[in-house]
Amino acid sequence: MMLSIPSTAKLHACSTTPRVSSSRISYFVKSLGCGGARTRTRSSSRLFCASNPWGTAEMLDDRKSSLNAAAATPEVASSSASDHHDVSPPPPSFLDARTEQDLLLVIQKEVEAGRLAINIAQGMTELYHNYRDAVLRSGHPKAVEIVMSNMSVALDRIFSDVQDPFQFSPYHNAIREPFDYYTFGQKYIRPLVDFRNSFLGNNSIVNEIEKKLEQGENVILMSNHQTEADPAVIALLLESTNSFIAENLIYVAGDRVITDPLCKPFSMGRNLLCVYSKKHMGDDPKLIDMKRRANTKSLKEMVLLLREGAKIIWIAPSGGRDRPDPVTKEWHPAPFDSSSVENMRRLVDHAGIPGHIYPLALMCHELMPPPLEVEKEIGERREISFHGVGVSVAPSIDYHKIYSAMVDPDEAKSMYSELLYSSICQQYDVLKSAIYGKQGLKASSPTVLLTQPWL
């Protein structure tokens, strides 16, 4: 198995924020643009249902409720405070911000108070600018309001987790209350998607998958992987026709999306099986044994889930995100690791519940392209764009038919992996023609029927 997520007790974002020198604070304050000319940064970032495709309604959470409750204290408390003119007001919060300057000022104040490390603060600042620029490029008439509404909540969630880090278990259920992280993620990514230039391939097969889930059967989606926003993209394109799948899909996810402070709140809204990717298994030789034990725990959780039945699990057998060809700069699905495909297939076969494996193609790299090369360090730089995206599913491929037609078992396993990958590449090419070739629905092929059910 290629993708990975850590054991809760071992992997968590660094939350201790040491106090910093006044010179570094001064430098950072200037970079924020507070009290002077604001410095513009290049668009980059990281990273997900409402009938309105822009989702501009303001989200309330428990922290904001508590602030409102505090404002409505009994008169005896207010009169007591009025007798002491030296009582200072509570520090401003991200949820109180009404302007860009307000948001940046809160970041500055938290750095000065020693509650926010400079590197995380810089990431939060960059995240704001990148997201703002991308949403403004969408041309939506309420782009400024959308940015303020979504970024005030995003920065609040990021800061809250820095103060009290959430630890992911090997199998993580999406947190929907008291704060709905799923809806938060959907609202955040929605303004980045150009729905007029986005496409869903073979919605009839998605309906078929939903029926199998209703019958208690398991479904595995073998997929390519492009960005940290993949879960949101899949859910956004399915929510109008297949909301059950959109909200109940389980993602096999790498440890990076549950350790990076800027990414954790978005991951908290997804159902995750947390594993360590082979690509990062040896980043620190001292942690290899711990990572293997964590992966074993996640594997056991997956076995239990499949035995329950009616589960749909997404996995990228390539073990990481697609990246452009260094010479041609063209994007293409990364090759599959056949051993990962075989491991997943065996788990499905031995679950005691009927299971089906479908190839799923994703095209959304323009939204948040990954670094050109795999990086060891957490906190990579990301770009953000407003762009069309695509998701397509092809018919299930039956391994046993391939096995019965071949003499060599190893050859059958290799052929099965190749057929899944080939199907994804074919679907990917159709999505590419529709989105980048500007062919739209006309790009449909005999095997991929494109639709736009949200329009």
TrEMBL record:
Q: What is the protein name given in its UniProt record?
A: Glycerol-3-phosphate acyltransferase, chloroplastic
Instruction: Write down the InterPro entries for this protein, in alphabetical order.
Output: G3P_O-acylTrfase_chlp, G3P_O-acylTrfase_N, GPAT_N_sf, Plipid/glycerol_acylTrfase
Q: Name one GO molecular function term.
A: glycerol-3-phosphate O-acyltransferase activity
- Tell whether Chloroplast is among the UniProt keywords: yes
Query: Family, per the entry?
Result: Belongs to the GPAT/DAPAT family.
Q: Name one GO biological process term.
A: phospholipid biosynthetic process
Recorded catalytic reaction(s): these are: sn-glycerol 3-phosphate + an acyl-CoA = a 1-acyl-sn-glycero-3-phosphate + CoA
Indicate where this protein resides in the cell: Plastid, Chloroplast stroma
Q: Which SMART domains match?
A: PlsC
The question of whether Cytoplasm is a record keyword is answered with no
> Which coarse location class applies to the principal site listed for this UniProt protein?
plastid
- The highest taxon in the source lineage is Eukaryota
- Pfam families hit by this protein: Acyltransferase, GPAT_N
Show where the record puts the motif HXXXXD motif: 225-230
Disordered: region residues: 71-91
Q: What does this protein do?
A: Esterifies acyl-group from acyl-ACP to the sn-1 position of glycerol-3-phosphate. The enzyme from chilling-resistant plants discriminates against non-fluid palmitic acid and selects oleic acid whereas the enzyme from sensitive plants accepts both fatty acids.
Give me the Gene Ontology terms describing cellular component.
chloroplast stroma
What Enzyme Commission number(s) does the record list for this chain?
2.3.1.15
Upper classification of the organism? Eukaryota, Viridiplantae, Streptophyta, Embryophyta, Tracheophyta
